[in-house]
Please model this.
Amino acid sequence: MHFAGHRVHWHGMGKKPRSEAKTAPAGGKPSALVDTRVVYCGDNLDQLRKLPDACVDLVYIDPPFNSNRNYEVFWGETKEKRAFEDRHASTAAYIDFMRPRCVELHRVLKETGSFYYHCDWHASHYVKVMLDQIFGQSQFQNEIIWKRTTAHSDSKTRFSHVTDTILFYSNGERYSWNPAYKPHKASYLKSHYCHTDAQGRVYRLDNIIRSQSMGPRPNLVYEYKGFTPPYGWRVVREKLEALDAGGRVEWSKSGVPYLVRYLDEQKGEILDNLWDDIAPLNSQAQERLGYPTQKPLALLDRIIKASSNPNDIVLDAFCGCGTALVAAENLGRQWIGIDISPTACRVMAKRLRDVCGIKEDERLWRIGRGFVVRDLPWTEGQLHKIPPFEFENWAVIALGGVPNKAQVGDMGIDGRIYPVSATPKKREGELDFMDVWYPIQVKQKDKAGRPDIDAFEAVMAREDRQKGFFVAFDYSADAMHEIDAFFRKSGKSIIALTVKDILEEQIAHKLA
Model:
């Protein structure tokens, strides 16, 4: 069996496919391996490391480019033109962020499991190289192309970008697979299904005799109702007699028999790797939540149906507004969701309640009926108590940056943001464009004062940065005056963010 040019093994071949009907747990914990029907709020790398090996049947991720959706808030990357060097710099940071997460996702995936990575043109080729290294080239099954939007003029100097790429990997030779179909095209139905029987059923006529190109089959050459095809029939006599008795053989005026195929019995056209039949969400779509990268429910339905079975465990480690979780719940799968955004976790919890009709209830969850949200939200009180280095990592990741790996020797920089719009000044050396970044300084203080700002100004001057980000619980009046004076004197901007700004996702308003 082949799927878009890649060999696919059908797990459980020879057995009847399991029903797509929703299967409710009999009670108690649905999985002996891991807690399911849980949304975790926090860094997915931390949460993935807590999961046991080989506990998940299907992974789907749609990670925002450059590690966090705040890149879209900060720089509006989908609307900006970027030079190759600029893309390369941001892509390197993105791959650096994604690699350890994909390693963990590979670890938690069962040998019969499948992995789908949804991305766009910015980094799909780099992502594939990374995934080939993690999963192995032989486990790559498909590059699925989804037409995510209609044609538009986003450039006068190149072709418009209207597709996304979904990279499909298996974790072994025998993985779960349910063949997928899509409706036949209207033109095909018009040209092929052009007959109607006395009951009004539409049908087409298909060959039931062998052609010359197929060659003769001695055991299939026999006479039936006075007709002996020169190269034989396509079925044995007993089968032909049964078809004829059931009204499935129609004889033409010239005396040639044909097989009757009814339209209402056909599954449709076998699905290939070009998906242009699932419309993107428009502004009027009923399921639209206003989430910038929300995907249609039909897209996740297709993936989950094809690569999992009822009660299998589906994991989305960048679950955003929860489309994969809703699809999994509706199809009778178990699921786990992870997202770093408290707002996103609240949105998906409401969506699960409203759309799927399941309750967010600890007691019901313990008997396999409800769902729960864990670690939501971080409060200012909790963030006061965690270790300083953990606090720094939380703040940097929440801003969409890359934290320093070492706790010392950071030279006043706790993390870096790699923007997609800044243009590097130097282009001579191969690594010069990695110089495009903004520093992040984090202080676990009730109020950052002027000395803290003075020290960060020195960092920005030393590194020749035009913009920097500072995070604290609050700022003194002297600190804010100094930030303003520094901008008037040097033209360099320090964006002062509070923990409350991050928790309430007020960052965009601060930068407006």
Notes: The CA atoms of residues 353 and 379 lie 24 Å apart. The mean pLDDT is 83. The longest strand covers residues 109-119. The two ends are 54 Å apart (CA to CA).
